[in-house]
Amino acid sequence: MSARSNKPHEIVERALALSRADGCLVIADETSTANLRWAGNALTTNGVTRGRSLTVIATVDGQQGTACGVVSRSAVTADELEPLVRAAEDAARGAGPAEDARPLVTGVAADPGFTDAPAETSSAVFADFAPALGDAFARARAGGRELYGFANHEMVSTYLGTSTGLRLRHDQPTGTLELNAKSPDRTRSAWAGRSTRDFKDVDPAALDAELAVRLGWAKRRVELHAGRYETLLPPTAVADLLIYQLWSASGRDAAEGRTVFSRPGGGTRIGERLSELPLTLRSDPDEPGLECAPFVIAHSSNGDRSVFDNGLAAPATDWIERGTLRNLTTTRHSAALTGLPVTPAADNLILDGGDRSLDQMVADTEHGLLLTCLWYIREVDPATLLLTGLTRDGVYLVEGGEVTGQVNNFRFNESPVDLLRRTTEAGRTEKTLPREWGDWFTRAAMPPLRVPDFNMSSVSQGV
């Protein structure tokens, strides 16, 4: 009998009952996915998958502290459940004291849906989207464009149970759409992406129309040298930069002098003004359209996440409030080390901007560049959070408030923290899909930003 023949909450309860450790946490993740792929204006593949993974975290108290063992496996059968629990216990007994050890979370009310069946997705999620995509293929074919891309929808139901009585559950839908339009000779390319919870708010016709305009801009080609240019960053590019900034915002690392958020001479830069614009960067599990788990789900420990914090509330947090740094990410352990408040990171990120559209910002640009997206972003210097990467699928020249052509791609060197300091305008915030980090982080809402001197450090030969 496979584990999938039992309900997830039953698997969690049985694993907890089998535990002989001093403490035990069990996380069952029930996952289903549905996807579509297309190329050259025609669907190529589609599929639906189902899966379950089980993580057992055992804690063992000792004279020198509490040790922890973590074992995760997929497709666990009923006969393999007890060996999985024993493996976690053996790993804990063979490990030294865990640096991040804290008492397991208590006092959280049980989720009334803990015993319900997991939520699932299916091909039905594309019931309206697929016909609309077919219509977009026809329009693109008639207009001399070829559409490539994919749509993916995933539903993960997570069940968390602990020996201290926690019984929590969260259903997380995640949808992504990436659409690429190319000219028949492949010399011109334009990209658009969207994140969605259910594909009901995605319009393939509107995306195709947007890409048609961009391919039209690219008919005129202008070669530019490397240098600093006034640049309009669209929401997707802003998201990629600020997500990496969030991932680099460890309170402990900052307090220990290792990051851009470290204060010279000691401590952190919390309380320091990072932008003259009244920009607020925040996370909120209840943000409409970007909802995510309101509590910590940690399958392993790292610098800013601890398995001991599983079930801890993850409330709305302002990372930057009206231009001033207010919080850095901490666990209960790192908060105690640094004296900072406990601030776990939620799985979304929002930058509150102004009220003007990107088109309006273009109209007010005398001479500058308009980007499509960023790609292959890598860290160069953690002390300044200097990042490097490439532009992709269209860099456009703006002259006299109009897009007049496409220019070559560039490699850039920029720090998102320094960009916030230099930004002179933020447009209207909208939901967006990060191009670079979309496989790991999809729930973002960002405004376009105007940077007067974006550093295009060299010319790239990419399309």
UniProtKB/TrEMBL annotation:
Domain Metalloprotease TldD/E C-terminal: 227-457
SUPFAM superfamilies per record: Putative modulator of DNA gyrase, PmbA/TldD (SSF111283)
Alphabetical GO biological process terms: proteolysis
UniProt GO molecular function: metallopeptidase activity
Pfam families for this protein: PmbA_TldD_3rd
Top-rank taxon, per record: Bacteria
PANTHER family attached to this UniProt entry: CONSERVED PROTEIN, TLDD PROTEIN
Protein name stated in the entry: Peptidase
Organism: Streptomyces griseofuscus
